[in-house]
Specification:
Elements (H helix, E strand, L loop, with lengths): L1 H11 L18 H13 L11 H15 L8 E4 L1 H13 L5 E6 L3 H9 L3 E6 L10 H5 L9 E5 L11 H13 L3 E5 L22 E5 L12 E4 L2 H14 L5 H9 L1
Parallel strand pairs: 2-3, 2-4, 4-5, 5-6
Antiparallel strand pairs: 1-7, 6-7
Helix pairs in contact: 2-9, 4-8
Pfam families: Aminotran_1_2
GO molecular function: pyridoxal phosphate binding; transaminase activity
Keywords: Aminotransferase, Pyridoxal phosphate, Transferase
Length: 262
C-alpha cells in the first residue's frame, strides 16, 4: 500500500507512472452497472441495506456461483461485504479465537498476515516453491507438528503474488484434510474468472464447510466500489451477521445496486 500511495502522489505531480503494485484492472465498471447506479441515485434514498446484504444481489451471487461451478449455492449462505477485505476480517473474527493458529502459503498476500496478527492469531507459513506451483499441499499440512496444527487454512487460487492456480485434486485433498482435522478452509477466490487454460475449482465443490471469499473488484473491474462476498457454512451465518452489524452495518448501498447489474 505504501507503493500505491507513492504512485498516486507521483501522478498528482504530473509524472508518468506505470502501476504494477496493485491488482487493479485498467478498465472501468460494466456499462450496465453505471446505468443502474444513475437510475438508483435519482429514485432512491439509498439507506442501509439488510446487514447480510441486498437480497437481490445475494441471489445473483448465488446464481452465478452455482452456474459457474455446478454446485448448489443457497442465497441464504451468501453475505455481501465491504470488499473481500471486509469479508476476511469478518470470517477471521467468526472462526478464530485469540491465539489460534492459521496456516497459509509463503509467499502470499501480506494483508492476511497483517489482519491475523492484529487479531492475535498465530501464523504458520507453508513454504511453497515452483515444485508445487507456489501453492500449498495437503502433505504440507500433514507434516506440521502437533503444536502447529491450524484452526484455519487459507488457500488463494489464482495466487497472489504468484498468479498460479491450485490443482483441483489438491484443493480437494486440502478440503478433506481440514474436515478430518477440525480446521476451517478459507478459500480466497478473488481472481476467479481471470485464468488462462487451467481449470479453476471452488472450495465449495469439495466441502460445504469451506468459507469462500469473492469480490467484484477483479473480474468485474470494480475495485473502488468495495463490494465482496462470503459464502458460508450454516454455523457461521449468525456470527458473521452479528459482526457485520457492528463493524460496517452493511456494504455501500449504491455499490450493491451496481453489483446487481454487473
Amino acid at each position: 500500500m505504501q507503493m500505491l500511495d507513492l504512485v498516486h502522489r507521483r501522478r498528482r505531480e504530473g509524472r508518468d507512472t506505470i502501476m504494477l503494485c496493485a491488482g487493479q484492472p485498467a478498465t472501468g465498471a460494466p456499462a450496465a452497472a453505471l446505468d443502474a447506479v444513475e437510475q438508483e441515485l435519482r429514485a432512491s434514498a439509498l439507506g442501509y441495506t439488510e446487514v447480510l446484504g441486498d437480497r437481490q444481489l445475494r441471489e445473483e451471487v448465488a446464481r452465478w456461483h452455482s452456474g459457474t461451478y455446478g454446485v448448489q449455492t443457497p442465497a441464504d449462505n451468501v453475505v455481501i461485504t465491504t470488499g473481500s477485505s471486509g469479508g476476511f476480517v469478518a470470517a477471521f473474527l467468526a472462526v478464530l479465537d485469540h491465539g489460534d493458529t492459521v496456516a497459509l502459503s509463503c509467499p502470499g498476500y501480506p494483508a492476511y498476515r497483517n489482519i491475523l496478527e492484529s487479531l492475535g492469531a498465530r501464523v504458520v507459513d507453508l513454504v511453497c516453491d515452483a515444485a508445487t506451483r507456489f501453492q500449498p499441499t495437503a502433505d504440507m499440512l500433514e507434516a506440521l507438528p502437533a503444536e502447529d496444527r491450524p484452526r484455519a487454512v487459507i488457500v488463494t487460487s489464482p495466487g497472489n503474488p504468484s498468479g498460479t492456480i491450485i490443482d483441483p485434486q489438491e484443493l480437494a485433498r486440502i478440503a478433506r484434510w481440514c474436515e478430518d482435522n477440525d480446521a476451517v478452509l478459507i478459500s480466497d477466490e478473488d481472481y476467479h474468472g481471470m485464468s488462462f487454460g487451467r481449470p479453476l475449482a471452488t472450495a465449495r465443490q469439495f466441502s460445504d464447510r469451506a468459507v469462500v471469499v469473492g469480490t467484484l473488484s477483479k473480474y468485474f473491474s470494480m475495485t473502488g466500489w468495495r463490494v465482496g462476498w462470503l459464502i458460508l457454512p450454516d454455523e457461521l451465518l449468525t456470527p458473521v451477521e452479528n459482526l457485520q452489524a457492528s463493524l460496517a452495518l452493511c456494504a455501500p448501498a449504491i455499490s450493491q445496486v451496481a453489483g446487481r447489474a454487473a
